[in-house]
Amino acid sequence: MTHSPATTSQRLLSSALRAPVMVIGALLSLLVAMPASAVGDEGSAALAAFLAQPIDPAVVSPDLSWAGWIIGLPAISAIICGLCCALRIRNKLPAAVTVISFAISFVLVFLLFRTVNPNQAVVIPLFDWIAFTWGDGRWHGIGAHFALYVDQLTLFWMLFVTGLGTLIAIFASEYMESDVGKGYARFFFGVSLFIVAMAALVMADNLVLLYLGWEGVGLASYLLIGYYYTKPSAVAAAKKAFIVNRIGDLGLAIGIFLIWVNYGTLQYDGLFQAIQEADNPAGGWDASLIPFCLMLGAFGKSAQIPLYVWLPDAMEGPTPVSALIHAATMVTAGVYLIARMFPLFVINPEAMTTVAWVGGLTALLAATIGMAQYDIKRIFAYSTVSQLGYMFLGLGVGTTYGACYHTFTHAFFKALLFLTSGAIMHGFAGQLDLRRLSGLRRVPGFTLVSWTMLIGCLWLAAFPFSAGFFSKDTILYWAMFHPTFAQPALAWIGLVVAGLTAYYTFRVWFRVCAGPVAYVPGEDDHGAAHDDHGASHAGHGAHGEHGGHAGHGGHGHDAHASGAAHGSASHAASAGHGGHGGHGGHGGRGGHGSGDFHPHAPRLAIKGVLFILAVGAILAGLPTYLVMSGHSSVNWVESMVGNSSAIMGVVPEALDTSHPHLLGMDGHTAMFVLSTIVGLTGIFVAFILHLQNRRLADRIRSGLLASSATRWLPTAMENKWYVDEAYHACFRLPMWVGGHLLHFFDKHFIDGLLVNGIGRIPPMLGRLFQPLYNGVLQGYATTMAGAVGLILAWIIWRWVAGGGA
Amino acid sequence: MGGGPLKVLLITSALLFSIGLVGFLSRRNMILMFLCTELMFQAAALAFVAFGRMHLDYSGQTFVIFILTVAAAEAALALGLVVLLFRRRDTLNSEVWSELQE
To answer: What is the ipTM of this complex?
Structure first.
C-alpha cells in the first residue's frame, strides 16, 4: 500500500465510514436539537479559550518501556489463573498471584508517576500493532500501535485502578474462599482480565487500543457478573450488562470512525494537535456528532440515562466484583473517556449541555429509586448510578477537575461501602435486607465493619469536610457559577440530590448498624454462594403491598436468645405484625436448622482491607485539607488533572478570577452552606425515621399508600419508576412479539409448507401407486401386460389415424 | 387371409405368446408359470426366425441360437430356485411369497 492514489482510497474509506453514521445521525440529531439556544456566545468563548491554550506535543520515550509491565503483569496473572482453572488447582494460589501482580503493577504506576515530568505528556511505544499506511501524514494511514500515552490524567486514573484493584483482590481472597477448588481460579482470572483491559483502556495511546480495553472490560464484567452461572438471575444480569453496553459501544465505534474521517488520526497526540490546527475545529455536521457518539459509549459504560439499567442488576456478581466494577474501575471508564476526549467536547456546547443534563437527571432518578429500595447492595448500586451522574454533571459544566476528583473519592468510599455490605452478607448468610438487620455495631466481629461503613456513609452523604463533600461541592459550585458552561438549574437539582443521598445513605446505616441488635440470617448456609439474595429480594414485592411492616419485627429480640433460627425468624416477624409470620421463615436453612445462628465474623483480610479503604477514603480529602490548612498552595488532584488534555479551555484564567455571589454570600461560602444544610437535613431525617422512631417511617409509608392520590409515589419508587418495565414494553416486548411472529412464519411457512411440503410430495405419489405392489406375482405381470397392451393400442390407433400408411 | 408363410408364422408366434401370457397370469404353480415364460420366449424366437427369413438375413436365426442357449441356462437356474422355494414352504404356490412385496 505504498503511495497508491492516496486521495481516492481516502475518499473511498471516508464514504465507507460515513455510511453507517447517516442512520445513527438521524437518531442523534434529536439529541442535538435539544439545547439549541446554548450555542451563541458561550460556544465561541469556549472555543477562543481552547485555541488560546497551545498543547505541547508528547515526547516519545522508549526507555520507559518497563511501564508495559503495568499491563503485562495482570495479563500474566490472568494466564496463570486460567492454567490453575484448567489444572483444577485446589488452593489459594490464584489469589496470591493476582494480588502480587496487582501490587507490583501499582508500584510500577507509582514509579512512573515519580519518573515522568508532570508538565509533559509521554508516549511509550511498546510494539507495532496495527500499522496500515499509504503515505505520510493525516488521512494516510490507520496507525494504532501498542503504545502508552502517559500524562497526569492517565497516572491519576491508574493509581486508583491498580491500588483499589489490589485491595479488592486481597478482600476477595478471603471472601471467595468457600469457592476454592470450584470457581476460585475462574474468579481471579476474570479479575485479572478486568485489570488488564482497564489498564489498556486508560493507558492507551490511541482510540483503537482504548476500544480494545473498552471491550475487554465489557467482556470481563460479563464473565464476573455471570460468575454464578447456574443461577438464572445472574445469567440474565450478565446478558443485560453485556447487551446494554454493546449499545453504547456502537456509539463509541462510530465516534472513532468519525474522528478518523474528520481529523485523520486516532492517536491522542496527533488528534489534539489536529483539533487545534483545524481551520474549523468544530467541523461539519458529522464532526459535531463525534461527542454525541462518544458520550453514548460513555453513558453505556458509566450507567447513565438511558443505559443505566444494567448496573443495579450487576449486583448478581460476587460482592468484590460489585466493588471493582461499580466503584473503582469499569463505571469510571466513561468519565475517563470524556475527560480524555475533552477537547472534542469543549468545542461543542450542545454536547456539554447534553452531558450535564443527562448526568444531573441520572443523579436525581437514581437517588429517588435508591431511597425506596430494601436491599443494601442495590441501594449502593443506585447510589453509584447517582454519583456517576454527578461526575457527568461535572464534566458537562466544564469542571473535569471536579468530575475526576469525585471519581477518585467515590472510588474509595464506594469500594468501602460495597465491601462492608459484602462483609455483612458474608457474615449473615446472604442477608442484605435492611429491614432484617439491626444494631450490627454491637454484634461481635462487626464493630469495625459498622464504623468503616459509617465513614463510607458520611463520605457518600457528603458530610461537611469529608472528601466526598469537597468533590461534590466542586461540581455543584461550577454547575452554579461556571463562566461558560454553568447550568444553575442543574446545580439546584444537584443540591436536592445531595439531600436525598444523605437520607438514603443514612437510612441504611441507622437501620443496619445502629439501633437494637436484631437480625434474621439470609438463605445461604456458609457453604453456598454468598450472593444468593435474589430470592429474598423477590419476596419484597408482595411484602410491599401490605404496607406498614418494614420488617423490624425483631425489635428487642436477640436472635441468639430465641431458639432455632427458624423459630426466631418467624417469631420475630409475627411478634411485630401478627400477619407476616411466613417471611424469613427459611432463615438458617442448611447448617443452622437445629442450632443458633452465629454470624460469621470477618477475619483479617476483610477487616484489613476495610480499614485501609477507610483510611484511604479519609486521605482522599487530603489534597483539599492541605490547601485549606495552608500547607499546600495547590490541590494536587487539580494540578494533575490540569496537566492533561482534560483541562483545555475549561477554566480560562481571566474568568476564574470573577467572584460570583449567591444569596448575598460569596459563591464558595454559599455553596458550602447550602451543601451542608441539605446534607445534614438528609441525615437528620434519616435519624428520625430510621433510628429514633422507626414506626413513623412505616406510618408515613402506609399513609401514602392509603391515599389513592399519593399511592403512586412510593409504589413507583420501589419499582424503580418502572423503567425496566417501560424498556420491556418498548423494546423487549416488540422484539419478542416480532421474533415469535417470524418464528411462526419460519416454522409453518418456510419449514412447514416449502421445505417439508415439497419433501412430502414423493411419498404421496408413492402411496398412490402402492396398491400395485401387492406381492402377488400375477399382479405385476398384469400391470406390465396391461401397459404393453395400452402402448400397443396407442400405436395401432396412431397407425389407423395416420391413414394406415 | 393370405400373405404367405410370414403371416402364418407371425400369427403362430402371437398365439404362442398369448397362450404363455394367459398361462402366466392365470396359474399359481411356479413350475407352470416358468413353463409359460418359456412359451413366450419361444414365441419371440419364432418371430425372429420369421423376420430373418423375410429379410433373408441370418441375424434372426443367430439370435434364436443365443436365446435357446440363454433359456437353457436360465431354466437350470430358475428350476433350482423353484426347488429351493419349494423346500422352504413345501408348496409351489407363488402366493405364499407375497410378503416380498415392495
So the answer is: 0.83
